[in-house]
């Protein structure tokens, strides 16, 4: 095992947008002479990619470009989306598009450009496997972070604090999960698997997309364009595709200031608010996509065809896989009997689970006070556990619906960076030699 000799002030698990925003916040504090912390990030992907398998042509962001990694905290930051456009000589051209919503491909490029400034702090291609407490007597004084690369080489890093931002784990319903068939593809692997298991673009395969949210609708439209002769079904439990609500009267729930209000409410009120506003983020689709799908379905009726279908109010009762394909046994509300439908590929767009941090902290769990996350995103722990542990993106039930989204990154990262410096103690920055000479000359 390779053990790095130094002790880091902070190790970040994951280097997606959340910890990238933290890297920017820490850099801003260093630039402002507010103190510096030695830190690194460990990322399982071989390079920075944000939802790389869902970077579909023609898909746009669902939030304003102003909710980038830093602008809500510091619009003058060199890491803003506007500065990214200026650096790439596209600022005027973007303005001429008259939109707040860049393409998802462009926003991913912005994130990668930002991440490129911090490559010296990030270890790509490693997966964190364990977090082990280090004791002095009864006190936990540090944490040993174990990771392994794709070749199985293990590394160990000692740290005085942790920030978890591992992202979500693909959620696959039990009826699909028990069938380990490569033709069943979660949306998180969509583009990679479509490329790895190509179908004849001129053929007429039968394809299914399971889910009623934005990703399901985007994949449905992508399959229609990618395989113009295919039969494509969109299977959803709901009675219809539901439009997302994103008007100014409701978007305030994604503002960073709303986090204070939400966190301060009793648990029962928070549950009620999550249920009330769930339709702003889950199992909903942008209105323009719904209109495109509806137009396609109507055009088919005019032509007397049924190549594309939306099978609503449907429950998947059983699944069978054989050499010919995947059979789905479907019960639709009001239908007299179960239908058997055969497909060559099934795309499961059923979202994510966010429990990775708790699993990685299993060896420290007995020292923690449950898995309670405070307002500043720090896990509650008794005094003898000295390393502070922060969690990003796993606090929806306590911090609101925006917690898993990009909307709060700029403010949340600053709150965590400030808490880290306050608790670990800022280290004075080394004065550059030229500045030292100038200062001595002025004194003399």
From TrEMBL:
Cofactor(s) listed: FAD
UniProt-listed Pfam families: Lys_Orn_oxgnase
Metabolic or biological pathway: Siderophore biosynthesis
GO molecular function: monooxygenase activity
Biological-process GO terms, alphabetical: intracellular iron ion homeostasis
Presence of keyword NADP: yes
Keywords of this entry: FAD, Flavoprotein, Monooxygenase, NADP, Oxidoreductase
Family: Belongs to the lysine N(6)-hydroxylase/L-ornithine N(5)-oxygenase family.
Protein name (database record): Ornithine monooxygenase
Organism classification: Bacteria, Pseudomonadati, Pseudomonadota, Betaproteobacteria, Burkholderiales
């Amino acid at each position: 095992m390779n053990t790095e000799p130094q002790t880091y002030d902070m190790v970040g698990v994951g280097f997606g947008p959340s910890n990238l925003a933290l890297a920017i916040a820490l850099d801003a504090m260093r630039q402002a002479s507010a103190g510096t912390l030695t830190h690194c990030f460990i990322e399982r992907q071989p390079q920075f990619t944000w939802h790389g398998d869902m970077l579909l042509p023609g898909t746009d962001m669902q939030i304003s470009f102003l909710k980038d990694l830093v602008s809500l905290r510091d619009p003058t930051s060199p890491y803003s989306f506007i500065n990214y456009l200026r650096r790439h000589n596209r600022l005027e051209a973007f303005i001429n598009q008259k939109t707040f919503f860049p393409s998802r491909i462009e926003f991913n490029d912005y994130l990668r450009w930002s991440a490129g400034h911090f490559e010296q702090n990030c270890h790509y291609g490693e997966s964190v496997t364990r977090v082990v407490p280090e004791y002095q007597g009864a006190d936990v004084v540090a944490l040993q972070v174990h990771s392994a690369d794709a070749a199985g080489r293990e590394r160990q890093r000692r740290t005085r604090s942790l920030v978890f931002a591992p992202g979500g784990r693909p959620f696959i319903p039990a009826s699909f999960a028990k069938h380990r068939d490569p033709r069943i593809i979660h949306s998180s692997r969509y583009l990679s698997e479509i490329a790895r298991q190509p179908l004849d673009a001129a053929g007429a395969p039968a394809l299914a997309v399971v889910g009623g949210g934005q990703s399901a609708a985007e994949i449905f439209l992508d399959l229609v364009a990618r395989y113009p002769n295919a039969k494509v079904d969109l299977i959803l439990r709901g009675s219809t595709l539901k439009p997302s609500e994103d008007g100014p009267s409701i978007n305030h729930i994604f503002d960073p200031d709303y986090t204070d209000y939400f966190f301060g409410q009793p648990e029962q009120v928070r549950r009620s608010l999550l249920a009330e506003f769930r339709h702003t983020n889950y199992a909903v689709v942008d209105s323009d996509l719904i209109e495109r799908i509806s137009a396609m379905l109507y055009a088919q009726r005019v032509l007397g065809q049924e190549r594309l279908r939306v099978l609503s109010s449907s429950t998947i009762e059983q699944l069978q896989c054989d050499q010919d394909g995947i059979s789905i046994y479907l019960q639709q509300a009001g239908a007299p009997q179960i239908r058997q439908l055969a497909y060559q590929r099934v795309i499961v767009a059923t979202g994510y689970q966010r429990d990775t941090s708790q699993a990685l902290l299993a060896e420290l769990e007995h020292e923690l006070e449950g898995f309670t996350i405070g307002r500043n995103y720090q896990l509650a722990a008794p005094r003898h556990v000295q390393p502070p542990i922060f969690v990003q993106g796993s606090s929806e039930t306590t911090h609101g619906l925006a917690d898993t989204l990009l909307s709060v990154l700029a403010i949340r990262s600053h709150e965590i960076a400030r808490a880290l410096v306050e608790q670990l103690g800022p280290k004075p920055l080394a004065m550059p030699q030229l500045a030292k000479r100038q200062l001595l000359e002025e004194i003399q």
